[in-house]
Amino acid sequence: MFTIKTVKGDITKITDVQAIVNAANNSLLGGGGVDGAIHHAAGPELLAECRTLHGCETGEAKITRAYNLPCDYVIHTVGPIWNGGKNNEDKLLTDCYYNSLKLAMENDIRTIAFPSISTGVYHFPVERAAKIAVKTVCRFLQENPDSFDLVEWVLFNDQAASAYETEVSLIQK
Ligand code: AR6
């Protein structure tokens, strides 16, 4: 059995997962939002390891250690920048979730926390993002039974919390 849940809070403070996912940019060299918070909390060694990765394509994922964060790993993925919705944004956001889970599974990670990828600076509409996020996680868990014990979203604001809570409650009916 696995748990899918949402919590409101700061992903850098989460203590019940082995890995947190970072909503990064193509450089993987830090930025604002959740990316800035993760680099700040992890410390400069995270940036040093990220420099060795030579960036990341949109929709792909790369893994590092977590340094001063309470978890063991950070999975860095790059969400799409919203550009009206007809420019492959849905597929690229799907890829972010799928590839993050695949990379986690390959590293024997059984507990993972996501932020609301792309819905901040990248302006992906949050209700649409939440639907894609929950649908993709469910598909991955169906295709890979026994891969995870816990998948959670850590939401930083009320609008995101409400959108993901709604989608998670629909699958639990
Ligand atoms: N914990 C959880 N969620 C957070 C936190 C936190 N500590 N801080 C912000 N959020 P964003 P994006 C929420 O902009 O849209 C960066 O500069 C935030 O409220 O962080 O994928 C990167 O370097 C929002 O709901 O990521 C890229 O350049 C969600 O995280 C760019 O932003 C995502 O917002 C990526 O943009």
From TrEMBL:
Spell out the Gene3D superfamilies in the cross-references.
Leucine Aminopeptidase, subunit E, domain 1
GO terms, molecular function: deacetylase activity; hydrolase activity
Cross-referenced PROSITE patterns: MACRO
On the tree of life, the source organism's domain of life is: Bacteria
Keyword list, A-Z: Hydrolase
Q: Does the keyword Hydrolase apply?
A: yes
Q: Does the keyword Hydrolase apply?
A: yes
Q: What is its EC number?
A: 3.5.1.-
Question: Known InterPro entries for this protein?
Answer: Macro_dom (IPR002589), Macro_dom-like (IPR043472)
- Stretches assigned to the Macro domain: 1-172
**Which residues does UniProt call coiled coil?**
none
Q: Which CDD domains match?
A: Macro_OAADPr_deacetylase (cd02908)
SMART domains, alphabetically?
Answer: A1pp
NCBIfam families for the chain:
PRK00431.1-6
- Name of this protein: O-acetyl-ADP-ribose deacetylase
Originating species? Blautia obeum
State the encoding gene: ymdB
